[in-house]
Amino acid sequence: MQFYSDEAIEQVYKMRHAIEDVKAILNDLNDDKIIMKERTVLEVPGTQNTMLYMPCINTKSNYSILKTISIFPENKSKPVSQGVTLLSDLTDGTHIANLESSYLTRLRTGAMSAIATDKLAKQGAEVLCVIGTGGMAFEQVLGVIEVRNIKTINLYNRTYEKAKDFKQRLEDFGVTSDIQVFDDVTEAVKNADIINCATRSEESVFDHKDLQASVHINGVGSYLPEMREIDTISIKHADTIVLDDLHGAQHEAGEFIQAEQDGHFDFNQATLLKDLTDKNKTEGVTIFKSVGAAYYDLAVTTGAYKLLNA
After folding, report:
1. For the chain, what are the domain ranges?
2. What's the Cα-to-Cα distance from 89 to each of 1, 11, 69, 93, 244, rounded to whole Å?
3. Which CATH architecture has domain 2-104+295-308?
4. I need a labelling partner for 94 at 20 to 30 A (CA). Which of 6, 58, 180, 286 fits?
5. Residue 273 — φ and ψ, nearest 5°?
6. pTM beyond 0.90, yes or no
């Protein structure tokens, strides 16, 4: 069995590859080629730490995965999110590789946001606001700049210094947008065409009244029922809401669960990413909410493995 580290994968497998592989898996999903069991989420008692276990098979590609990912938000010297995925061949049951999955998790989530952004954000979008500059945020930026010509990036984090470090990381990576760091979220969002939220907040991280009339929002940070990122008013008034996976969102997307309970949202009226087309684009508020699903991990795990063995 082969093993591939995050570093080895990152050398060859990039955002553009992930976007194409996620698009392909969405086609397989529509063709009923995906079989997946519900993600198991186990919270470690007395901590904020969480273990997730995610199985999935693709009867078209004949690959199977079992992903294990840990989310330990208080980590200082190690990444908050760490994962490994077992890849198996369905033709003979051989377990062919283990791939470290922290990078792949971030990359596939960025690719999902890129696909939604490309379909929903206005074509001339130039200003991206990033709320939360932790582990998931970097690839979210890479996804957006892959599909839109972003001239300005506004960064906001509760800890100002972390936002400054994030700016430096983007610049070191080669991002050429004008990057600004804000200590007031209102100022950061008010001119934004696109907003990326990647936090573990239990209350909304921006106020609807501060948004432009036409804005696209990607929410990828909250993944437990008690978490909130996007305010209820934005959900209520959104022209289009897109979910990465209906079952997962119904159980884990806290702000949408609350909005439905309050009578401001209906999960059955949302569009799924697999069904998203250019016809969903509007001039108002659009929202993409991601909680993750194993078939997205299968897409990038298989894609990375093939590229590594090309």
Report:
1. 2-104+295-308, 121-292
2. 12, 24, 21, 5, 26
3. 2-Layer Sandwich (3.30)
4. 6
5. -55, -35
6. yes
